[in-house]
Structure formats: C-alpha cells, structure tokens
Amino acid sequence: MNGTLLLRIAMALILLTHSVFGMFNNGINDFGNLYLNQIGFAPFGVPLAWSVKLSHVAAAVLLLLNRYVKLAGFVTIFVLIMGIILVHFQEGWFVVGGGRNGMEYNFLLIIVLVAIMYPNGFKKDKIQE
C-alpha cells in the first residue's frame, strides 16, 4: 500500500466536495458570472470557473487511482495559487478565527499535494548498480 493513500483520499474528498456541490446549486456559474467576469475575465468567467471545477474532479479521480499524480498535483496547485492571488490574499491568512476567507487552507492543501507528489522528498532517485 502506498504511504500517501490517506492523504490522496482526503485530498480527493476535499476536491470533490468543493466541486460537485457547485455543479448542482449554480455555484460555479455564479462564481464565473458574479466574480470572475467582474474582475476582468469576461466573457470567459463561466467557462473558466467550470474548467477549474472539472480539473478538481479529474485530479480527485487521478489521486484515487494513484495515476498521473504529479500532473494532477501541479494543475491543482496552480489553481490553488491563483485562488490565493485572486481571492484569499486580500483577506489575510486566517480562514476563521483571526479573520475570514484567508489563505491558510489553500496553503495547507498545497503542502499536502507536494507531500503526495514527492513522498520521498525532492532527492533524485539513486541509480542501482
């Protein structure tokens, strides 16, 4: 069993819940229309929002299957960094408590993805002789 299994399951659940509910309650369309279009992404806000959420679903599936983990990780990390830049940075660090809607949660998700992508650290694999 891979040592990242629990982290991959947890990350997949977070990505799926963060995506799927918005598909059924108009949250993705609202994010595209009411936020992304308003900050300069018009007329691409809705397609961009859907691309982000579908990338989350794809990443969740890949993490669960333990396939293309680095690709899924890099794409998701990019999305999370853009979320920090566009949404969370201006709100500060704290998600709750010392503030609201901050970047600490995205930061943690990024670190978890890096741990999944590089379970043995960043050292190069040794060539066996």
UniProtKB/TrEMBL annotation:
One Pfam family cited in the UniProt record for this chain: DoxX
Protein name: DoxX family protein
Signal sequence extent: none
Membrane-spanning parts: 5-24, 44-64, 71-90, 105-122
GO cellular component, one term: membrane
Topology of this chain in the membrane: Multi-pass membrane protein
Keyword field: Membrane, Transmembrane, Transmembrane helix
InterPro entries reported in the protein's UniProt record: DoxX
Subcellular location: Membrane
